Amino acid sequence: MTGAQAGPQSAASGSWPEAAEASDETLMERIGAGDARAYQMLITRHLTRNLGFAHRLTGSGHEAEDVVQEAFLRVWKTAGRWRPDGAKFTTWFYRVVMNLCIDRHRRARSAPLDAAGELVDPAADAEEQLRQAQRAQLVAGALTRLPVRQRAAVALCYYQELSNREAAAVLGVSVKALEALLVRARQTLRQDLAVLKTELMGETL
Amino acid sequence: MTLERLKTVLDAYGGAPARWPADERAGLLALIRREPAARAMLDEAGSLDALLAEAPGAPPPDAALMARLMGAAQNTPAPVLRPLLDWSWLWPRMTGLAAAAVLGFVVGVIDLSPVSSDQQTDISGLVFGPDDSLEDMTL
User: CA separation (Å) from A115 to A137, A187, B129?
Assistant: First the structure.
């Protein structure tokens, strides 16, 4: 028999005092029972870092928000059946976000990505801020032009600050394969950004 | 630890030791302390790191996004119980049931196999006692 409940329970009816200390896995159990407070707690814990991750992969704030919404909705719908299978929730959820980004990237392959990310609004009369904004846009653009798995590897290791083992687990590869992705990514970035470095900083990489 | 390994680590993880593989970090830092060439490699890697650090991140999530996420769940039925068509949870139980059924069948076949006359005698002896006592019971 299928039990379907229309939306999350109210915070009051699903409240429990130890929610803040509960593990992600415990929260998932509670969410599986329709507990809205557990769902809200899980979102609070993981939204910022996964929004940042999705932003690195999509190069777009709006796309990143759509991705995390879809990812959290998947949590809501499947929490009752979720089994960790040895992986931490954090690892599993990064993988969900990454795969959603990759799916979107494949669907939109014909359309150009938002190559430079979102524009940073520089102060009108501050030359250094202008240069900084230009550098930021060019670096974001260079990251966005990387193949998506290389981009994910860089995002996980450099911006999400995961260990090499954790990043490899998210990508579903060995640590050696992760290193190969990172080496290729840095080689490409070095070449791509050499021009930028010369132009904006008067140096060579 | 070798210069070759240091080069691979720097090419992959950059110049920040915090990103290096934890089990190699101490060895690599020791190599950098004693080898000037290793120090130069580290400095070179830091140049790209500095640029990468300038990439803008996502703005922090606002209350509107949180409300959107909760609202999306509000409009989506949560499968509290396992869906009817999802039988994956049943397989481990079915395996146990099937094993019990096979065992029961095997035991049943063994019990139904023909019993020799000697065994019959033995069994009747166990149930009714020796032949003479059986005769005593006859009216």
Answer: 9, 19, 96
User: Does pTM surpass 0.90?
Assistant: no
Structural domain that includes position B110: 97-137
Which residues lie closer than 8 Å to B10 by C-beta, 6 or more apart? B41, B42, B44, B45
Q: Each residue of B61-81: pLDDT tens digit?
A: 999 999 999 999 888 876 554
- Beta bridge pairs of residue A6: B77
pLDDT digits (tens, 9 = 90+) for A95-151: 999 999 999 888 776 444 444 444 445 455 667 778 888 888 889 999 999 999 999
| Alpha helical stretches, state H, B53-112 | 63-74, 90-112
Number of domains in chain B: 2
Architecture of domain A11-113: Orthogonal Bundle (1.10)
Distance (Å, rounded) from C-alpha B38 to C-alpha B21? 17
A132 interaction partners in chain B (CB closer than 8 Å): 54
Q: Which of residues 19-78 of A touch B (CB under 8 A)?
A: 31-34, 36, 39-40, 43-44, 47-48, 51-52, 54-56, 61, 64-65, 68-69, 72-73, 76-78
CATH of domain A115-205: 1.10.10.10
Neighbours of A194 (CB within 10 A): 14
Band (A1; pLDDT cuts 50, 70, 90) = very low
What is the mean predicted confidence (pLDDT) over A25-43?
92
